[in-house]
Structure formats: C-alpha cells, structure tokens
Prior knowledge:
The chain is mainly alpha-helical. It is 72% helix and 0% strand. It has one domain (4-291). It has nine helices and no strands. The chain is flat, with a radius of gyration of 21 Å.
Amino acid sequence: MVTKKIRIAAWAMLIAQGGIILSGGIVRLTGSGLGCSDWPKCTPDSLVATSEMGIHSYIEFGNRLIAVALAILGVCIALLLWKHRKKRPDLFWLNIGLLAIVPVQAVVGGITVWTKLNPWVVAGHFVPSAIAVGVAAYFVRRTYDTGVRLPTRAASPLPTLSWIMLGLTAIIVVFGVLTTGAGPHSGSTMSTRNGLDNIWVTRAHAFPVWLLVITTVVGLVLAKRKAETAMIAPLSVLLIVELAQGVIGYVQYFLGVPELLVALHMLGLSATIAASVAVVDSAHPRSTEATTDRSLSAIP
C-alpha cells in the first residue's frame, strides 16, 4: 500500500522539478547566468556566493541550491520507498531515475558556465529538466494505483491520440528552447544567441501548439462519446493549460517578451508537460486499491 507520506513526497518532487525550471528561468531573465563565474565553486576562491559578486551571484547560487535540495528530496523518497521496493519496484526505480538526473544536470550546468552560456549548451541543460518534470508527473500518477494494468478497449483510438499529444508536447518543448535561444534573454551580456531567425522559429514553435490544441479537443470529444471517464479530467486540464499557455505566449510575443510573462510561460510549460503525461497514463489505466477491494469482495 502506498502511504500518504509517499504521495506527498511525490507531489513535492513534481513541484520541485517545476521549481528548478522556474529558478533557471529567473537566472536567465535577470542576467544572472554568470553570476557565479566558476563551477562547482561559485568563484575560483569561494564555494558560495559572495557580496563582492553582487545580487547575480546569489540568484545563480540559489538555483544551484535548489538542485541540491532536489537530490536530498530524492534520497528521502528512496528511503521512504525502500521497504516497498519489492512490491512497488516501479515507484522505487522511477525515483532513482529522477535522482540520477540531478548529477547529470549539475555537470551540464557546469559546462554552461565554462562555455559562457553557449546557447546550444543551455538548450541541452533544459531538456533533462523537461524530461524530469514528465517522469515526476508519471511518478505522482503511479502513487495512486496498485501497479496492475487494467484491460483497455481494443477499438479505442484514445491511447494512440494520447501518445501523439505527448509527442507534440516534446516538439513544442524543443522549439520553445530554440525560440528562447534566439530571443533577447541571453542570461548574460557575455553570452551569444543561437543565430536562428526569431520570427520564424517562433512560428515553428506555435504551429505544433495549435496541432496539440486540436488533438486535445478531438480526444476530449471522443472520450465523452466513448464514455472514457478516466480520460475526461486529464484531457480537460491539458486543454485549459494549453489555452492559457497560448494566451501568455502571444501576449508576451507582442509585448516584446517581458520578464514576468516569460516566467509565467515557463511555469505553464512544466504544467503542459505534466498534463500531457497524465493524459497518456489515463489512457492506460491501472487498478486502484478501491477497485482491487471491489474485485475481492465480488469473489464468492
């Protein structure tokens, strides 16, 4: 049985993964990308931020501390799951996977500092965080079931549609990273842009967004017609997040990408990833403790 503490810890992991994306965005938006001029130390002479380095060093070092907090949280969840590892190996190894991303991100983060925020390295630094949000969302979902798959309707197109939605989300993330790399928020006056045309890469980013919205609407209509009740709520949440993201995206574009709206858009990106994963998982249902109890009570 998955305990309440494990569920709370899983939610904390998801929120923290979204939080480190936001904190990384704040580093970039405030021009603090090289606030710490070295890695793993903040400066060649100091492990932590110093007053001599100014506010930017504290912002950048704060982002590094969140990564440390993520690692500590992952270890704590591993300890919580240790006695459940044989009954729920899926949860245990999902958390180990999330924990393993932390040192990878730390090393890539160090490379971004050493390369003076090369836009392609920065893009590579973001992708594992986006993946971690998706895995964390899946981890949360799995804490609400027993791990036993239920049969799905063979004729239903919804599982295939759900994977298309997740694929479109991945494409949106990639083009979003490229758009950021072409835009004005470089993270530091010393860093360069990726050289892509900002207008065209923005349009390339918007196109799969519209495809995702259309696919989600189609999926929601099908879910209601076929009485796939488990998918209605996740699809509805995904559609709401998509529309909010679309509004923020267009407004920020026409207002010259103000920092506050960019930060909100990054929060929305984490929400979109999590919601897309929830849709895929809802298309492949598993039994809950309640459904298991009902099945046992039906045995004569």
